[in-house]
Amino acid sequence: MTLPRILLSAAFVAAASAAHAQVNIWTSGPITVFGSSPSGPLPNSTAVATFHQGYQPNGDRNPRYLDNLYLTDVRYTSTLEWGFFPGSMQAGHAIFKSTAIVPSASSYTPTPTSTRSEVVARWSYTHNGKRRWYAISVFIPDSWPFVQHDVVVGQLHTQQPGTITVSPPVAVVLHDKYLNLTLQTSELSNDPNVASHIEKNTSSTQTIRLGRIDDKSARDKWYCFVMQADWSNTPGLGGFKMWMNGVLKYDAINAMNSYQSDGGNYAKTGAYLTSLQDLTPGTPYTMYNDYIYLADANTTSENDLYNLTPCGRTGSVAVVQSGLTFNRFTSQYTGTVSLTNRSGYPMTKPLQFMLPGLPAGVTLANKTGDLGGAPYVTLPNATLEPGASATVTTTFDNPGKAAIGYTPVLYTGSY
Amino acid sequence: MTHLTPKLVRTLLACALTAAAGLAQAGVSYHVDVDSTGHTGPGSLELTFLGLANAAPASATASGFTGLFGTDGDQQGSVTGSFPGQLVFNNGGANDFWRSVTLGGVFGFDVDFDLPIAAGANTTFAVMLADAAGYLTVAPVAAFELAPGSAVAVSADPTYARVAAVTLEPARSVPEPASWKLAGSGLLLMGVLRRLRR
Could you tell me the end-to-end alpha-carbon distance of chain A, in angstroms, rounded to an integer? Predict the structure, then answer.
């Protein structure tokens, strides 16, 4: 199977309208509209320094490097995969499977103190004095092994000289049964030759509780974080807002939120196990991550990004399922499905209409193939432009005359 | 009665008239003629009323069958009634009705619908015509697509089917007592208003 392109789109039943305001895709729109990366298997990366390549310290804009949208940062035995996993259904496309695996201390010198499996949105560095929007989405599986250490699942980090190590200005953190937002900032210099330069213990730290995940109903679901940052490391300036699953959770104005940085701040998502103390080597900590969406200061509403996330994207495609006809001679049922692109972005071919959840005994007679046990049909037409519609015919074998139901999903990409 | 302000009276009157107007709303009914001219021998006419499991609840009533129908046939699933009388199809499950015919003539019937008002997928009332070898057309010779909140979308193969909308008599079903009560109160208020103006 070929791995899917990164694309905007997809969906299922909905009547929600698309966002009115548009993301400026030149300076940093939804990165999914560009190119075909990442392609799998994703390589491990040991060169964290490559995060710093290509930024434009003096530029107002952060143009994309279109053929390489992500860098990966996978340490020791941890793994990062790209494909269809739990959570893809809502995302409407392939997602990242991030597994931080506790390494064996005796296998490495120096002894590992943490491990991670992360992806970084490349060329997204944003400087103090600029506004940037971000969306990071994580799917926490029911099997999540609770751990008494911080597991950072999304962060807006800061580029610093190699001798300076600080925690990220913004981090979404799982700690045991809690989901927290941790904010860190300092107004000190990032010049290591200055006596009072920034370091971890000179940063101010604030932790906000976003929710709990110990109840089973709080897992096997997406958590989508939309953030608006007016970056600043000057006291009295700056601002930061965060919406979780469409609800405003944090709002600060006239409050600095960053560090002095030559490169600026950038977004990461994945599983970063910050401590290995008392953990059993080989234990996997797996979660799933959607694309990182970025938008520039021209963005006018948090919904512009929220509607792209697995939590809010249900309105991007309008689906109308016709009634059925029955063929007595073949015992087949036939219907059509009309799909209308209600987003502001083209949905690029190939488009795959998937029918997960068909009842036992019902099969799709005209399927193109199966993925994860669900049949799909490849739409014959090309790109679905905003406002355009496509119709898919579905023919079912249903010898038991069962009630035919499924969850309509439009995927982009090829399998 | 003089303590009722004209504004209140007008509001109540408007409500009552609105309710009464609903009583007079015509139902949705169609007459279907399936024309098998040009074909001979044994055949069958088939009716289904089907939607996906998430289809908005709806029903179809077919009656007034005319033409050279035979005695063979079958009626399965969520169809009640008996041919040649009234057949009621419910989209809550699989259903299929077919009856043998002698091809060459015209087969007619009336159909009306209780339209879906809840959200959900559509339902199709389909009319198929077959000879001994199978259906004469790939698509139904006539089809009625019922979408929640929309008018019935009718399609017909001009070679085989003619569909005509029929205006039903206003009060096809007996109104609920409460509706009569509301309509009556409207008439009463009209009289009161008239009297007040004098």
Answer: 5
